[in-house]
Each structure stands twice: as structure tokens, then as C-alpha cells.
Amino acid sequence: MGGGGGGGPGKARIEIIPLIDIIFFLLATFVMVSLSMTKNQGIQVALPTAGSAASLGDHQEMEKAVTLSVNSKGELFYNKEKITIAQLPMRLQTFKTTSKDPKVIVNSDGATDFKHVVAVLDEVRKIGIAKVGINTEKK
């Protein structure tokens, strides 16, 4: 008989270390992607940039906030619904009474006349909502 070892090829083995590396990579990727996803309730506008831009809060609290958007034409949107400035006080009053901790986020196009943004902020202030954030992009 020949001098080969046992009676056939060796047993197949599954290497667990590379499998664990792949699982950790996928987990880390999933966590990073899910953290970077933010729910934007407003319309898409070209936000102005600011060097001091910071997060407005955690993701769950921002989902409860109302987003008021002003596009470059000066049109106003309550979340994604187009409204007029005259309709805004009634909407905000309803939101204030139904929400325990009302928050408003203002999205404005960088090319918008500032008077439109000031009018929106004025209406929010008249209703008495104190927590207002202005959405910008980080420089």
C-alpha cells in the first residue's frame, strides 16, 4: 500500500473567524447608515450653510416636530402640504394644543427673501411656541 495518510481527503472545516469579521462589518455598516438617516418632513430646498450648524435633537423627538418650509418663490409648506401664511396660525394652534411639547423646524431656501422667513417665525412666536429650530447645512 502506498504511503498516503488516511483513507481520503481531510474533513472540511468552516472557518468562523472570517465569518465573525463579516458579521461585525455588516452590523457596523447598518448602524452607521441608520444613524445618518433623518426623516425630513418638509419639502426639498437648498438650505443655507452655517459653520455652527448642530443637531436639533434626537431622531424620535424631531419626528414629532412640525416642519415649515419656504421655497425660493416664497411659498409656504406645512410639512409637505402647501398652505398660505393666513392658514398658518390655525394650523400651529391646533398643533400646539395636540402636542405636549411642540417644536417647529423652519426650512428655507438660501435664495428666499428673508421677509418670508421672518413672517413665518413671527406667526410661530405669536402662537407661543418657544422651541423653534432653523435647518441649515454644515459648512
Q: What structural category characterises the helix and strand content?
A: alpha/beta
- Strand and helix order: HEHEEEHEHEE
Counting H and I runs of at least 4 residues, what is the number of helices?
4
Lateral arrangement of strands in the main beta sheet:
4-3-2-5-6
**Low-pLDDT residue intervals, each spanning 5 or more residues:** none
* Spatial extent as radius of gyration: 26 Å
Distance between the termini: 77 Å
Number of strands: 7
Mean pLDDT: 79
Tell me, what's the shape? elongated
**Main sheet, how many strands, which sense, barrel?**
5 strands, mixed
* Fraction in beta strands: 15-25%
Percentage of residues assigned to helices: 25-40%
Could you write a compact summary of the structure shown?
The chain is built from 4 helices and 7 strands, in the order H-E-H-E-E-E-H-E-H-E-E.
